[in-house]
Design brief:
By secondary structure, this protein is of the alpha/beta class. Helix content is 27%, strand content 24%. It is flat, with a radius of gyration of 16 Å. The two termini are 22 Å apart.
Amino acid sequence: MAAERDHRRRRPDAIDVVDVAVLVDDRAVAIEENGPPPVAAHVVSPAGAASGAGGSGPLLVLIGEKDDWTPAEPCRRLAEAAQRAGSPVTIKVYPGAYHSFDSGNPVRYVATRVNANSTTGRGATTGGDPEAWADSIREVTAFFGRHLK
């Protein structure tokens, strides 16, 4: 992070990574350790959002309708509850898309994957969806454009 801070001093127009949280498949990246809460968060796979990883800033949830690893319905409920509480949360559910829709990988079910959302505790489907992926890039670009000025 020190190198990144030095880079920001040389480029004042650079985005401050302390102010941006990006959650991808439940892993927070680009957050400075022990830093302040982020001003914006982008969530591709939003199970981590329930833990408050997105802070109090705006939150974008992008989820596949057929995601059997991080199902869309609990994400909808989370977003609706947050909205009722006054939090700036937006959710978009991609019809027909699975977990990891933002990849070029073929859709496949793996029976050995640990999956707390499965009745057996195992098995999940992942795979790319080119239309959802392209739209998610537009959504994230617009989201950051609105919230990181």
